[in-house]
Amino acid sequence: MPATVVVGAQWGDEGKGRVTDLFARDADYVVRYQGGNNAGHTIVVGSERFALSLVPSGVMYTGTVPVIASGVVIDPQVLLEEIGMLEERGVDPSRLRISANAHLIMPYHRKLDTVIERYLGRNRIGTTKRGIGPAYTDKYARTGIRVQDLFDPAIFVDKLEAVLAEKNKILTRVYNQLPMDAGRIAEEYLVYAERLLPMVEETSRLIWDALAEGRTVLFEGAQGTLLDIDHGTYPFVTSSNPSAGGAAIGAGVGPKVLDRVVGVAKAYISRVGSGPFPTELSDETGDRMIEIGGEYGTVTGRRRRCGWLDLVALRYACRVNSLTELFITKLDVLSGFDKIKAATSYTSLGETYTEFPRQQRVLYNCAPIYSEMTGWEEDLSETRRFGDLPPAARRYIEFIEDQAGVPVGWVSVGPEREQVVTR
Ligand code: IMP
Question: Largest CB tally within 10 Å, which of 181, 325, 384, 406?
Fold first, then answer.
């Protein structure tokens, strides 16, 4: 797997953390290419559970270099806390490399994320309130502050004062908040600079050299395809490109170097935050998925909305990402359900759709058309071979594969590293 992308094929929370953790074992570099600390990756190693939001999962292996690439937005306080937590728990994060071009999440981004959501009221996105959207907004408005600016205090203060003058007007006049003080922010951030400096690098070059030497590089996406700013359910999306193309842009490599694109999808589906969700279940079955699947956000603790697998959306994700393989997670959660359903098409406003609808009005009115299959009772947690899965579970996976048109290479049957069926 010289250059493999791991991408979420749903609305995030597919279990990418455990997948990248598994693949990272054979990777020399693990590169996070977009998003920020809105992501939450849970990795279970023995009895230990690690929740990472910024540091790539590769940090858990001593032979792997974790890289935070240019497409990521970094809240330095959160990053340093995460580094501290890893050190305290005996994981060495010193190999971490951080792009000098990554943008910084500033205190006014966090503040704006909160007040904008409040202002939007019932139209709110349901963001994680970590300042992600406002930080990317500044990046594209070309008023962002980058990691490299931390190492030139005069430039840092200049940029901060210029941008804060505008932000303070917005905070005070539009959102009725107190202004923020540039001096205080500079004091706080310039202290972070000292600790970050040894890890900062031209990561695009680092990745290029690694690939040229034949090293294996794993590109780790955060969130998922349906949260992609360009290809997701806009405006209920995140502000970056989680889909596979984002790996090339965010890491600073050409798309031709990407050999494999592994899409991660849960055996059912979930979404956290607002927005359309055709197969959402607001009944006992949905509650059961939430309880058995432990469907509460790693970052915000919010209860996730759950529903049956949406194969219309999955086919869309296969196309948008050019997926080469699928990794189906949490199949074990569906044990004990009498019937398993999966949406193969939608009806909306009198029409039938087998393709993910382009128009939001259509998507909002979609009712799923399900294929129904017999479930299985057996506990799958000890299963390691595809042939040992109950026939009904095997049929379900084969049905997914057939509908998606992409082979399923792995199925996870529990949160532990080794609880994976490899085909
Ligand atoms: P933001 O990324 O905080 O701006 O939030 C935008 C939308 O993306 C909201 O619906 C969030 O709940 C969702 N979101 C952001 N990060 C994640 C994630 O890691 N998993 C699932 N949903 C996410």
Answer: 406
Known catalytic membership, residue 41: yes
Rg (alpha carbons) of the chain, rounded to whole number: 21
The verdict on the CB of residue 64 being under 6 Å from ligand 1 is no
Verify whether residue 109 is a known catalytic residue: no
Specify the pLDDT at position 260: 97
264 lines ligand 1 (CB under 6 A): no
CATH class assigned to 266-422: alpha beta
The one-letter code for the residue type at 351 is E
Give a three-class secondary structure readout of 30-56: EEECCECCCCCEEEEECCEEEEECCCC
Please tell me which residue in 21, 28, 41, 75 is annotated as part of the active site. Answer: 41
Q: Is the CB of 10 under 6 A from ligand 1?
A: no
Q: What CATH number does domain 3-98+202-262 carry, 3.40.440.10, 3.40.50.2300, 1.10.1740.10, 1.20.970.10?
A: 3.40.440.10
Mean per-residue pLDDT pooled into runs of 10, the chain (423 residues): 94 93 94 95 82 91 96 98 95 96 98 97 95 98 97 96 98 98 97 95 97 97 97 97 98 96 98 96 96 90 95 98 98 98 98 96 97 97 97 98 98 94 94
Tell which CATH classification among 3.40.30.10, 3.40.1180.10, 1.10.300.10, 1.10.10.10 matches the domain 103-196.
1.10.300.10
Nearest-atom index, ligand 1, CA of 130 = 3
Q: Is the pTM of this model over 0.90?
A: yes
**Structure-block tokens of residue 24:** 């990272």
